[in-house]
Amino acid sequence: MSGITAKQILTKTKNTDWFGTDYNMNVYRGCNHGCIYCDSRSECYQIEQFDQVTYKENALVLLNQELQGKRKKAVIGFGAMSDAYNQLEKKKYLTRQVLELIDIHGFGISLATKNSLLTRDIDCFKKIQRHSPVNLGFSFSTSHDGLARKIERNVSLPSERFRAIEECKLNGLYCGLLMMPILPYITDNWKLMADLIYKAHEVQADYIYPLFGMTLRDRQKDHYIASLHKLSPALAEKYQRNYKETYFFPAQNYERLVDNFKNLCTKLGIVYEMAEIISNYQMPYEAEQSTLF
Length: 293
Known about the structure:
The chain has 293 residues and is an alpha/beta fold. It has a single domain (2-292), classed as TIM Barrel (Alpha-Beta Barrel), CATH 3.20.20.70. 43% of the residues lie in helices and 15% in strands. Helix 3 (94-105) packs parallel to helix 4, helix 7 runs parallel beside helix 10 and helix 8 runs antiparallel to helix 9 (233-242). The longest helix has 19 residues, at 274-292. The radius of gyration is 19 Å and the shape is globular. The chain starts with a strand and ends with a helix.
């Protein structure tokens, strides 16, 4: 367990298109979930020894100072680069303390994770939701536990994440799925995707936001291909043969998958457009604020 000293915690977002967040925050660096495809390994994020998690020792002091200096209440994005509920959080409780500070200062939260440990802090999210928007997103590449064990070795199984969503919904929290990444030749199978959508519907998820493909670049690509060689040399060779050295590697039968996804979500009444997702969890608070004036 090692710590680092940070100069800043909150980073202003360039726009609010991504789940309506005004600021981004990470109190951990690196991740030990062991997902073979993780985009955060890419060189642009400048995280060396990515599998070794470090925490920001002065995160709470900095966050308290920065929140005090904000005149306008806002929504803070959390967990995009490094999962806020990594293995170290079980001992450090740093994410929980951050949530308590966010509640005290009257800010909202939009958090993404792969870990069912999030349910430990449902009481914190309920307190925040009394005054500010709360959005909880669980990331899925597949709904099948067996496949997940191979490509996401140290993270909560999909079945555990579905149970976590169900518990969040029973507690009145706005909660959905980030269906990403969809891995070419592995999880870009419509039967697999349809199974995920139906299971999301069963637990009454508020939304599914998809990415039909994956980023594949520099260190991320090298790690991913090396991992595939251990799992399936033939599959690794298929990637090397067909990848065109672009930033994004789309799912196979991209357009058909998109159409099928939209049709099934519409049939089941599941929201999937980003603008509607943002509106659904933020609009009640905007309406309440407008009536005060």
